[in-house]
Amino acid sequence: MTNAQLYTVIALVVYATVMALIGFLCAGKSKTLDGFLIGGRNIGPWATAFAYGTTYFSAVVFVGYAGQHGWNIGLGSIWIGIGNAVLGCLLSWLLFANKTRKMTKKLNARTMPDYFEKRYASKGMKVLAAIIIFVFLVPYSAAVYKGLGSLFGAVFPGVATWVWMLILAGLTAVYLVAGGYIATAYTDLIQGTIMIVGVVCLVCAVLGHDAVGGVTGLIENLKNFHSVPGDPTPTTGAQLTNIFGGSSFKFLCFNIMLTSFGTWGLPQMIGKFYAIKDTAAIKRGTIISTIFCTVIGCGAYLIGSTSRLILGGVLPEGGIDAIIPTVLMEVLGSGTLGIILLAVIMILLLSASMSTLEAVVLTSASAVAVDLIPAVRKKETSPEGQMLLTRILCLAFVVCSFIFATQNIPIIVSLMSFSWGIVSGCFIGPYIWGLFSKKITKIGAYSGILSGLLVVGGATLVISLNSGFSQAAAKSPEMGVAAMAVSLVIVPLVSAFTKNKDTKRVEEIFACYNED
Mean pLDDT across the stretch 397-411? Predict the structure, then answer.
C-alpha cells in the first residue's frame, strides 16, 4: 500500500466513524415522521445553508461537469459556477425560501408530492409526482456513485470501482436510516466545511503547478496552448481563454440555465426550505449558502480549466470522466504534504457525494412511503408503519441506485442532465406558481407536470430515432431548459382558461403569508 493509499484509508475510517456516530446520536430526534423527514421544522441557518450547498454540488460536478466543461471550454466554464451561486442559490433563497416555509407549514406538507396534493386538492397529482421522483432520481444518484467511484479508482487502481460505490452506499444508508434529516443536516455542516477547505487547498495546488504558473501563468499558458496530434477534442488557446466561451457560448448558456434554474424545481433542494425554523434563519442562511456555492462552484470550474495544461493536452485513458482524477494524481500524487492533501480532497469529494445522495435518497424514499403507498391503498398506515416503511425504502433506493451505477454507462454528465431536466421540468411550474398565484388551477398544475415529461421524453425519442441516443444525450441541457420554460409558461396559461372550484380554500392557504 502506498503512502497516498494509506493516508486516504485512515481519513476514510475517521470520516466514516464520525458520520455513523452522528447518525446514531440523532436517532432519538427522528422518531416521528416530521422529525425524520424535515427535522421538526427547526433547523438553523448554518445547517440549512450547508445542506442546500452540499446537496447542490456532488462529485459529479467535479468529475463530470468541471472536468468536461473545463477541458472543452476553458476559463469561460467558470460562468457556470457563478450562475449556480447567483441564480441557483441566491435568487432561489430570496424568492422561494420564506414562502415555501410558510405555505408548507400551513399545509402540513412534508414532501413535494404532499405539497401538490394539499395545494391543488389532488391525490392523483401526488401519486404522479411521487412516481416521477422515484423513477428519475435513481439515475441521478447512480451518476453520483459513478463519479465518486472514478475518483477513488484513480487513487486505488487495484480496487474495482464497484467496491467504492458499495462503501459509499453502505455509509450513506447507515447514518441516513438511523438519524433521518436531522442527521443529514448536521453531517452536511461537517461535510460542507471539509468541502470548502478542500477546494481552497486544491485551487492553490493546481495554480501552483509548474504547468500552470499561478493566475497570470494560467491565462498566458492557455493562450499559447496548442492541441497535440490525434487529440479527439482539439481546441485553441483563443477558445480556452475566451471569457464568454467562444464557440461554446450557446452550450455554456444552456448549461448555466439548466444547472442554475433547475434547482428551483428539484424536490431535494426545495425540501431544505421546509425545515428551516424562521424568517431570521432564512436571512442568514441566504448569505451563508451563497458564499458556499460561490467558493465551491467557481473553484471546481477553475480547477477544470487548468486540466489541459496539467495533463499536457492529452485526454486520459478513461476519457472525460477521468480528467479530474488524473489531475489530482498528477498534482498531489507525490510528496508527503501533497499526499496528505490528496486524502483531504478525497474526503471532500466523498462529502460532496454523500450529501447529495442522502438528500436524493430521503426525497425518493419518502415519495413512495409517505406519498405513493398511502394514496393508492385503502387501509391507513400508522405513523410507526410509515416510519418503518420510509427507512426500508431508503435502503431499497440505495440498493437500486447502486445496481444502476454498476452498469457500464459512461455518460455520467448526461445521466444527471436527463434526470435534472425531467424532474425540474415537471415540477418547476406547479411549484413556483402555486406559491405566488391564487389563480393557478389543478388542471393548470397537471399540465405543467405533463409538459415536462413530454418535452424531454418526446425530444429524446425523436432525436434518438433519427441520430442515435448519443446525440440525444448531447442535447440533454437544451431539453431540460426547454422543459422548465414550457412548464413555467403553460401552468398560468392553462389556468387562465380553467376555473378554480375552491376559491375559499385557496384564500385560506394564502393567508399564511400574513401570519408570523
Answer: 72
CA 106 to chain centre: 27
Only one residue has cell 431544505, namely 272
Distance CA(319)–CA(315), nearest Å, equals 6
Measured distance CA(346)–CA(328) in Å, rounded: 9
The more confidently predicted of residues 389 and 123 is: 123
Using CA atoms, how far apart are residues 251 and 261, in angstroms rounded to an integer? 15
Q: Rounded CA gap, 129 and 138, in Å?
A: 15
pTM over 0.85: yes
User: Across the chain, what does the average pLDDT equal?
Assistant: 84
Q: How much is the pLDDT for 101?
A: 95
The answer on pLDDT for 362 being more than 60 is yes
CA-nearest of 378, 395, 12 to 178 is: 395
Kindly state the cell numbers that stand for 214.
499561478
Cell numbers given for 67: 472536468
Cell of 362: 430521503
Instruction: Work out the number of other CB atoms within 10 angstroms of the CB of residue 158.
Output: 7
Q: For residues 453 and 449, what is the distance between their CA atoms, to the nearest angstrom?
A: 7
DSSP assignments along 307-355, one per residue: HHHHTTTPPPTT-GGGHHHHHHHHHHSSSHHHHHHHHHHHHHHHHHHHH
Residues written for the chain = 516
The CATH number assigned to the domain holding 96 equals 1.20.1730.10
pLDDT at 476: 80
Give the residues across from 43 on adjacent strands.
Answer: 276
Query: What number of CA atoms fall less than 13 Å from residue 489's CA on the CB side?
Result: 7
Cα dihedral sign, 410-192-182-86: negative
Number of separate domains in the chain: 1
What would the grid cell of residue 402 be?
A: 447502486
Q: Which domain holds residue 107?
A: 3-514
User: How big is the CA angle at 367 (ends 365 and 368), to the nearest 5 degrees?
Assistant: 70
- Please state, in angstroms and rounded to a whole number, the distance separating the CA atoms of residues 125 and 123: 5
Host H or E run for residue 218: helix 214-223
